[in-house]
Amino acid sequence: MRSRRFQLVFLVVALLVDFYVFQAVKELSQGLLPRTRLLIYTIYWIISLLSLFTMFFILPSLRYKAPKTYSYLLALVAGLFMSKR
User: How many CB atoms lie within 10 A of CB 54?
Assistant: First the structure.
């Protein structure tokens, strides 16, 4: 992630895909109780936003300071993103 333009494009695409997947989550949870649906929606968005926050703010600072931690976090975040798609 070298340039700001790439980061912005990646962020927009990731959010668009998140909204698209969220529509499926809403459809699948339609018959559940309102509290359960709210819990599912909240957990979904917390995981999504924490992944994006980690990717854009935490990972760049760890790349050279702690390369092993960087590798593990990058694999975790990439796994979360790829599993939703």
Answer: 16
HSE-up of 2 (CA within 13 Å, CB side)? 0
pLDDT digits (tens, 9 = 90+) for 45-70: 999 998 888 888 888 888 788 888 88
List all residues 6 or more positions away from 3 whose beta carbon is below 8 Å from its beta carbon: none
The 10 Å Cβ neighbour count of residue 31 is 7
pLDDT class for 35, splitting at 50, 70, 90? very high
**Token pair in block for residue 43:** 């957990």
Q: Smallest Cα–Cα separation from 49: which of 83, 3, 80? A: 80
Reduced to 3 states (helix: H, G, I; strand: E, B; else coil), residue 85 is coil
Query: Amino acid identity of 23?
Result: Q
C-alpha pair distances (Å), 13 with each of 10, 33, 38, 79: 5, 31, 25, 17
| Length of the chain in terms of residues written | 85
